Amino acid sequence: YKHAYLYAKTPGMSWKEAFLSFPATIALPHPATGQLLIRESLCIDPYTQDIFITSERVPAPIYRLPWNTFN
Fold first, then answer.
1. pTM
2. What is the pLDDT of residues 48-68, one digit of tens each?
3. Are 51 and 42 in contact (CB under 8 A)?
4. How far apart are CA 28 and CA 5, in angstroms?
5. Which of 35, 33, 25 is nearest to 4 (CA)?
């Protein structure tokens, strides 16, 4: 995956409406090591809003993308 897409869902909005809205695009970096070229999963830290990305490799590395780098 080249980018991540962040959809905003406000209270009272259906998931269908949220996914029909225009998402924010988050360009995911390609680390110099090449370990995350096949990105599989990501999550957002609920406290810092940082993004954690992992790949299909074994062992799967975890890459942290601080919130201030894409916001």
1. 0.67
2. 989 898 877 778 778 888 887
3. yes
4. 10
5. 25
